[in-house]
């Protein structure tokens, strides 16, 4: 028997929409939900109700209605034997139940939604003015009252529920019975017998998106327990609208909850991605997915034939049957509903899986991530599918990244290994060509070189070569350098193909950056090429340090300079450094007089493997690598201008660089206490006034020098062109109180210039400066000139014709009065470590030079030994790191100390790094003056360079090492006094 009771409630403000981001205060006290059903006739409800039959429905529920809207009672069939009319399943029962299970998943535990629904039901109660209002959902077995007005909550068997008849009708109509006791279909039903007199209900209808299908979650009804007037047409229309509002509230609340769940899952996925490791990613994904779907079975399946095996199912499911990665056993669920709609559903472990999500793993198409459940009421939606797919993608990406990493490592090892093997013969080819050319220039026919006791190589004879032979040597040299450039570009492109990161960022001297770039690029071409490489450093004297990655900026600038040299046959390549007035933009400009670029090709030249002229050598990677390195450094490479046959202007631009000025700067140390007047003279003869002299003079003027008349000048700036009469005239006209700085482009000019001055009383007054004339090198030259001026007392050698008011030391902008730099410029008390090492090394003399050559390759060893023999340098050789250390100790024991070590990196028995470390340890233990150790290797990896420096190496050279570079190295660290 149903009893009436009022539903308790608490007055309060109208609650906001359930979609509000902040959950509202609960307005109503939510009553406890009944757990046991109220059953009136256990015998009748023990069997399932029938499926929907269209013909029976039309006969038992005729569409005819009274004028008031009440349904008309049909004629009772003669074969009707049931006590009252039992409802049937709906015509679209499967899709109706799946929609109900999905959108009703939160209702019974969502207090905020229940409170909102209670508000709406109370409004219906106020408007309809009947005894009670019921909002209920019709499951496969029971009709559950969700919220009510003036009647208790209950769980009713579907067979006995009057509202189960309402759900059978089309949506948008009212199923209204004016007097249930007068309708043969309901007069004997349990609720009518309990006192129900009037009933009016409508569906909670919902249209499936993108379809014409309309289903009913349940019903919204009003009832009376005494005779009453039927609902007016206005009330009927309002009841339908209230039902639609309630459905909208339920659907939108579910969607909001699913969106919230997606956000939570996205956070879970992000956390999982942060900890993704190839070795553990599968286990971690399985653990997380099982936590998200505790009701499901989760696992990876290897199915080469694409047949997904699901639990307790005899047949596997083809992956092709998964629609949007989802599969459902609709027929199985339909059959179960038809035969078990009288009993509550309880999922058991031995039930067959009825739903599954499966994703094929891209890294292995035979593997699938499968989530399956045997719980019919668990509906997978797009959020679940998205999450599982994202997990599968994370596994795939992690494994593919690992495979890619291994592949890239293998590729890198191969490239570096093969490059090392290629550099060795290229080193032999280029060095041999260089030595042969020197032989033909320096050794007359019939003469022989002095035999060297350290070498079994017989002396060369008749070394003059024909012009055709020299041309062939030039071809070999150019081809070798082109091959070397291609190898270097391929390695650099491999390094920066996927945007490498800045590795070692610290303060570096602009002078050292300039020196290393020009040294490495100058060694890649010969002076026979007819190109002058010019350094034009326009930085203020106080700007000496840059906070950057040394190796990256050196690589970037090197690519730009090599590109300019490659396409310039004659003329100049200018390496210019400038900075804006407010120090916010640092620019490196590389300007050449080469073949130029057409405007149509401006953009194409930065693409990988693109070449304007397919006839030119190389792989077309130089500018691509330079642009990518610039991007890593936070800058950019631009083509400022270019014109066919008129050269090109490329620029590396770095925005907002961090600059620094040492407290004891080079400029201050060199010139502040200088006694030498800062005046210079440069010959005006066109045979001597070359581009090198011009830029050297500009650099002197930036340092504070003033150009003056020949008789008033302290410094004479000239180029060592000893073959000209003008140079000989210049030598004869130099005054006894003047310092001569002579510019020479190669070692041969240097030696010939010194030969021309051998019999003169020039001694220390002649100071050599090799091209390209860098600012750092010129500072050293000026410092040596000032020292010679002071020690030789040249101020006491004034000729009668010298005017007494010669300029005294004067900086264009005295260091003490330099305007403060921008905020990113800082003052440092110490010079960079590299600069200190080079200054220390410069104190050695040429007479102390004895070389140790360590290399396991006989060809490389022979080439370097031949170089030492030709330059008349004393040397010893070793074929591994242990022997190198032993030879070093033996020389020290015999007081024939080794001062320069050329050490290979990869050698048997002991490598070059360990050998260098042993040499440094022995020097410290025996109190020996440290030798200069330079790595000469085919390896170009940053890690090898780092380890070499840590072991005590003074420098690192990548093969091939040209003879010119060796000459410059010895000239820099072992000057002749």
Automatic annotation (TrEMBL):
<dbReference type="InterPro" id="IPR036890">
    <property type="entry name" value="HATPase_C_sf"/>
</dbReference>
<dbReference type="InterPro" id="IPR001789">
    <property type="entry name" value="Sig_transdc_resp-reg_receiver"/>
</dbReference>
<dbReference type="InterPro" id="IPR004358">
    <property type="entry name" value="Sig_transdc_His_kin-like_C"/>
</dbReference>
<dbReference type="InterPro" id="IPR036097">
    <property type="entry name" value="HisK_dim/P_sf"/>
</dbReference>
<dbReference type="Pfam" id="PF00512">
    <property type="entry name" value="HisKA"/>
</dbReference>
<dbReference type="InterPro" id="IPR011006">
    <property type="entry name" value="CheY-like_superfamily"/>
</dbReference>
<feature type="domain" description="Histidine kinase">
    <location>
        <begin position="417"/>
        <end position="658"/>
    </location>
</feature>
<keyword id="KW-0418">Kinase</keyword>
<dbReference type="GO" id="GO:0009927">
    <property type="term" value="F:histidine phosphotransfer kinase activity"/>
</dbReference>
<dbReference type="GO" id="GO:0005886">
    <property type="term" value="C:plasma membrane"/>
</dbReference>
<dbReference type="InterPro" id="IPR005467">
    <property type="entry name" value="His_kinase_dom"/>
</dbReference>
<dbReference type="Pfam" id="PF00072">
    <property type="entry name" value="Response_reg"/>
</dbReference>
<dbReference type="Pfam" id="PF02518">
    <property type="entry name" value="HATPase_c"/>
</dbReference>
<feature type="modified residue" description="4-aspartylphosphate">
    <location>
        <position position="904"/>
    </location>
</feature>
<keyword id="KW-0597">Phosphoprotein</keyword>
<feature type="domain" description="Response regulatory">
    <location>
        <begin position="850"/>
        <end position="974"/>
    </location>
</feature>
<protein>
    <recommendedName>
        <fullName>histidine kinase</fullName>
        <ecNumber>2.7.13.3</ecNumber>
    </recommendedName>
</protein>
<dbReference type="GO" id="GO:0000155">
    <property type="term" value="F:phosphorelay sensor kinase activity"/>
</dbReference>
<keyword id="KW-0808">Transferase</keyword>
<dbReference type="InterPro" id="IPR003661">
    <property type="entry name" value="HisK_dim/P_dom"/>
</dbReference>
<dbReference type="InterPro" id="IPR003594">
    <property type="entry name" value="HATPase_dom"/>
</dbReference>
């Amino acid at each position: 028997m149903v009893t009436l009771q009022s539903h308790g409630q608490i007055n309060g403000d109208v609650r906001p929409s359930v979609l509000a981001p902040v959950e509202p205060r609960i307005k109503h006290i939510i009553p406890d939900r009944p757990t046991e059903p109220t059953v009136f006739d256990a015998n009748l409800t023990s069997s399932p109700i029938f499926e929907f039959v269209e013909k029976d429905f039309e006969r038992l529920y005729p569409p005819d209605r009274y004028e008031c809207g009440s349904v008309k009672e049909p004629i009772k069939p003669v074969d009707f034997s049931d006590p009252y009319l039992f409802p049937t399943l709906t015509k679209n029962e499967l899709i109706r139940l799946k929609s109900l299970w999905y959108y009703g998943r939160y209702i019974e535990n969502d207090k905020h939604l229940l409170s909102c629904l209670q508000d709406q039901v109370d409004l219906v109660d106020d408007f309809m003015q009947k005894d009670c209002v019921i909002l209920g959902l019709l499951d496969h077995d029971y009709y559950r009252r969700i919220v009510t007005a003036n009647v208790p909550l209950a769980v009713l068997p579907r067979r006995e529920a009057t509202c189960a008849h309402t759900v059978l009708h089309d949506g948008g109509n009212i199923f209204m019975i004016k007097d249930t006791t007068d309708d043969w279909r309901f007069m004997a039903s349990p609720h009518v017998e309990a006192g129900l007199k009037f009933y009016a209900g409508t569906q909670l209808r919902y249209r499936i998106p993108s379809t014409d299908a309309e289903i009913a979650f349940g019903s919204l009804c009003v009832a009376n327990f005494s005779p009453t007037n039927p609902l007016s047409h206005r009330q009927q229309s309002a009841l339908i609208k209230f039902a639609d509002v309630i459905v909208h509230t339920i659907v939108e609340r579910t969607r909001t909850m699913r969106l919230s769940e997606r956000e939570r899952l996205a956070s879970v996925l992000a956390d999982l991605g942060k900890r993704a490791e190839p070795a553990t990613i599968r286990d971690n994904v399985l653990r997380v997915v099982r936590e998200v779907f505790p009701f499901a079975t989760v696992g990876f399946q290897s199915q080469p034939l694409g047949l997904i095996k699901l639990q307790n199912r005899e047949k596997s499911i083809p992956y092709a049957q998964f629609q949007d990665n989802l599969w459902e056993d609709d027929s199985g669920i339909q059959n179960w509903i038809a035969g078990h709609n009288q009993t509550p559903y309880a999922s058991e472990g031995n039930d067959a899986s009825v739903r599954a999500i499966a994703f094929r793993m891209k890294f292995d198409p035979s593997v699938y991530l499968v989530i399956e459940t045997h719980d019919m009421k668990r509906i997978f939606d797009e959020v679940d599918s998205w999450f599982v797919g994202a997990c599968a993608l994370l596994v795939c990406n992690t494994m593919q990244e690992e495979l890619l990493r291994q592949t890239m490592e293998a590729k890198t090892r191969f490239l570096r290994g093969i490059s090392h093997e290629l550099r060795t013969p290229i080193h032999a080819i280029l060095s041999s060509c260089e030595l042969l050319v020197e032989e033909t220039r320096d050794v007359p026919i019939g003469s022989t070189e002095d035999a060297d006791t350290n070498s079994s190589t017989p002396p060369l004879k008749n070394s003059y070569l024909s012009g055709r032979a020299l041309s062939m040597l030039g071809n070999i040299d150019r081809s070798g350098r082109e091959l070397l450039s291609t190898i270097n570009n391929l390695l650099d492109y491999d390094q920066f193909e996927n945007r490498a990161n800045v590795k070692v960022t610290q303060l570096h001297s602009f002078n050292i950056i300039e020196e290393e770039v020009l040294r490495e690029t100058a060694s890649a071409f010969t002076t026979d090429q007819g190109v002058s490489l010019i350094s034009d450093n326009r930085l203020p004297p106080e700007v000496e340090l840059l906070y950057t990655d040394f190796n990256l900026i050196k690589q970037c600038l090197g690519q730009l300079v090599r590109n300019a040299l490659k396409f310039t046959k004659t003329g100049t390549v200018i390496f210019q450094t400038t900075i804006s007035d407010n120090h916010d933009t640092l620019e490196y400009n590389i300007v050449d007089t080469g073949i130029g670029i057409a405007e149509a090709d401006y953009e194409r030249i930065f693409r990988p493997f693109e070449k304007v002229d397919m006839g030119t050598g190389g792989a077309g990677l130089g500018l691509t690598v330079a642009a990518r390195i610039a991007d890593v450094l936070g800058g950019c490479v631009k083509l400022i201008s270019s014109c066919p046959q008129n050269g090109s202007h490329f620029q590396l631009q770095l925005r907002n660089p961090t600059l620094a000025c040492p407290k004891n700067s080079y400029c201050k140390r060199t010139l502040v206490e200088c006694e030498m007047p800062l005046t210079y003279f440069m010959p005006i003869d066109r045979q001597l006034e070359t581009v090198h002299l011009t830029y050297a003079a500009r650099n002197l003027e930036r340092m504070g020098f003033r150009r003056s008349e020949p008789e008033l000048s302290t410094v004479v700036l000239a180029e060592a062109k000893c073959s000209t009469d003008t140079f000989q005239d210049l030598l004869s006209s130099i005054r006894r109180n003047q310092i001569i700085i002579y510019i020479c482009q190669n070692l041969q000019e240097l030696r010939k210039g010194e030969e021309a001055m051998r019999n003169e009383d020039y001694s220390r007054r002649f100071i050599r400066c090799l091209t390209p004339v860098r600012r750092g090198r010129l500072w050293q030259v000026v410092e040596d000139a000032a020292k010679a001026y002071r020690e030789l007392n040249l101020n006491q050698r004034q000729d009668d014709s010298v005017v007494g008011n010669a300029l005294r030391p004067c900086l264009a902008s005295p260091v003490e009065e330099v305007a403060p730099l921008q905020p990113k410029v800082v003052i440092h008390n110490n010079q960079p470590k590299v600069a200190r090492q080079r200054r220390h090394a410069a104190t050695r003399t040429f007479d102390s030079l004895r070389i140790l050559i360590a290399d396991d390759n006989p060809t490389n060893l022979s080439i370097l030994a031949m170089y030492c023999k030709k330059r008349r340098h004393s040397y010893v050789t070793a074929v591994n790191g242990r022997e190198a250390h032993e030879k070093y100790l033996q020389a020290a024991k015999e007081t024939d100390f080794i001062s320069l070590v050329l050490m290979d990196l990869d050698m048997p028995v002991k490598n070059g790094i360990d050998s260098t470390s042993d040499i440094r340890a022995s020097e410290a233990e025996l109190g020996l003056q440290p030798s200069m150790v330079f790595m000469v290797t085919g390896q170009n990896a940053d890690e090898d360079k780092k380890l070499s420096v840590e072991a005590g190496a003074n420098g690192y050279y990548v093969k091939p090492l040209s003879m010119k570079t060796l000459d410059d190295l010895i000239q820099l660290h072992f000057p002749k006094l």
